[in-house]
Amino acid sequence: xxxxxxxxxxxxxxxxxxxxxxxxxxxxxxxxxxxxxxxxxxxxxxxxxxxxxxxxxxxxxxxxxxxxxxxxxxxxxxxxxxxxxxxxxxxxxxxxxxxxxxxxxxxxxxxxxxxxxxxxxxxxxxxxxxxxxxxxxxxxxxxxxxxxxxxxxxxxxxxxxxxxxxxxxxxxxxxxxxxxxxxxxxxxxxxxxxxxxxxxxxxxxxxxxxxxxxxxxxxxxxxxxxxxxxxxxxxxxxxxxxxxxxxxxxxxxxxxxxxxxxxxxxxxxxxxxxxxxxxxxxxxxxxxxxxxxxxxxxxxxxxxxxxxxxxxxxxxxxxxxxxxxxxxxxxxxxxxxxxxxxxxxxxxxxxxxxxxxxxxxxxxxxxxxxxxxxxxxxxxxxxx
Length: 384
Ligand SMILES: C[S@@+](CC[C@H](N)C(=O)[O-])C[C@H]1O[C@@H](n2cnc3c(N)ncnc32)[C@H](O)[C@@H]1O
Prior knowledge:
The chain has helices spanning 12-21, 39-48, 67-75, 103-122, 172-181, 199-208, 231-241, 257-269, 305-324, 339-343, 375-381, and strands at residues 2-6, 25-29, 32-36, 54-63, 91-96, 136-141, 144-150, 190-192, 250-254, 277-280, 293-297, 328-334, 349-355, 358-365.
């Protein structure tokens, strides 16, 4: 079967990389990554993908420039393989750069075409739709229709740990991507002096402790009638892999006591109680005890003009702080066009993302001083 793991702009390649590391045949496409596999593979993708939004089963794709073509194309697909006689199958839709641009009409036609197909296959005229829900989506992009079944249900960023939102929280999937793209590899301390509700810290800790992000939530496909017997085993395996004792050196601070209270709550809800240190502190009081480390942050951007100047001052302070700690790298995401100028340094690496609707840059400034290679002294003193 073919699946698509959808992703936000800029994260497609990361999702494809994650799928490949899971042993799946995957390739990045606009809006996500396609992969081939079984229902069990889709369940693994739902459980383990850190940067994807949803996992969709692709029922079919075809060209559709008219409503007739859409109807006939949908009716030609093997819906009876996926939809039972009694299931509920709501249809959602999306149209872009196509001749058919009325989402509501495309949804209604898709529904009618599926009903006609099922009537012929099941020899019934009326569907009660009283059983399990199997969500269907019709997407038209450049006159190509893609018909999919959503195996995830709630979007995958809903890991289950964030029940209260602070000011401008980072989406969990984007936070996981930033952790991957930062220079942090788990061998140095990681600090976020603008940690807010703790998203970056929690996503980093998930990675460090091999915690599947979907471990404690459910997915739409677990209710599907073609339940795969291996599902519970997959969850048990994911639970066994999670080892919070591997978490070390992850800490954060924020000037807002309410944000820190939320961060503490989220850390506990993520099953990481006592593993991440957070405290109320002004960024100016960030004086790391360790000589080497990585600072990963989502500082305020100053979206309102009145806040802009305050943010620029903050970035200058951050620049002074980094200069005073040459063993620390900094990775930060910001939509502020003067971030580098204020910081006083050009970024060594940059990547563009959207944080919600805001176009942002994720910038990395490598440490001026690198930790000594661990193996050098032993090698030098090794006997002949
Ligand atoms: C964009 S939010 C970070 C959101 C966070 N990534 C999350 O997922 O919740 C920026 C944070 O910077 C904090 N902040 C602003 N000025 C600060 C300062 N001088 N020192 C420390 N934190 C500050 C704000 O309280 C806010 O929580």
